[in-house]
Amino acid sequence: MSANLAVPSVTADYAQRVADDLSANRGEQERVRSELDRLQDELVRLEESEQVLTKMQDVLGGAPKQTAKQGKSRRTAAVPAARRSNAKTAAGKEGAASGRRTPKKSASAKKPGEATWLELTTAYLGGQSEPRSAAEVSASLTEAHPERSVQVTVVRNALEQGVAQGLLERSKQGRSVFYSPADTVPAPSDS
């Protein structure tokens, strides 16, 4: 009779293990989906930063030659921009038709009426008494604008854009880089 009692107990144990494994699997799928969404958003922000940097590079006098290693590491170089944007549009339509989630718009995209990162960074530095690093500026903007997704790389790009436009000055202390507002009034000469 003990053999009959052992069979349902073992079956129940296996059923519980399978249910636990299934639950863990579903949880892991959700975690991976969240990570995928985050990575897609990050990729969009990086591509936008690349466009800004490319424009800044063009304004500053052209592009230096890429090394062979840099050229190989860029996946997007193989697909022309027009096809790449059409592919994204088609993927979004296909995802909507099949019920799948489509990647969200970048949180760093400028909404109408919102200040640009350059405006925010120059305004913040204008109120400071000493130079600040990109990380410090980013942390302060995160506190001041919790509704916006603030990334140090985006802030650093805006700061460099400000330097390129003569709005900000860059100074180095060891390996650290600090930014401050550019002096708009030339200092009087002692001559």
List keywords for this structure.
61% helix, 191 residues, coiled coil, mainly alpha, Arc Repressor Mutant, subunit A, two-stranded antiparallel ribbon, Regulatory protein
Describe this structure in words.
This protein has a domain at 116-184: Winged helix-like DNA-binding domain superfamily/Winged helix DNA-binding domain (Arc Repressor Mutant, subunit A). 61% of the residues lie in helices and 6% in strands. The protein has helices spanning 2-59, 68-73, 81-98, 117-126, 134-144, 152-164, and strands spanning 168-173, 176-181. Strands 1-2 form a two-stranded antiparallel ribbon. Strand 1 and strand 2 (176-181) form a beta hairpin. The longest helix is centred in the N-terminal third of the chain and has 58 residues, at 2-59. It is elongated, with a radius of gyration of 26 Å.
CATH homologous superfamily classification of the domain at 116-184: Winged helix-like DNA-binding domain superfamily/Winged helix DNA-binding domain
What characterizes the major β-sheet?
2 strands, antiparallel
Strand-residue proportion: 5-15%
Our measurement of the CA-to-CA distance between the termini, rounded to an integer number of angstroms, reads 111 Å
Shape verdict: elongated
Helix proportion range: 55-70%
Region (Disordered): 56-114
Coiled coil: 22-56
Organism: Streptomyces poriferorum
Keywords: Coiled coil
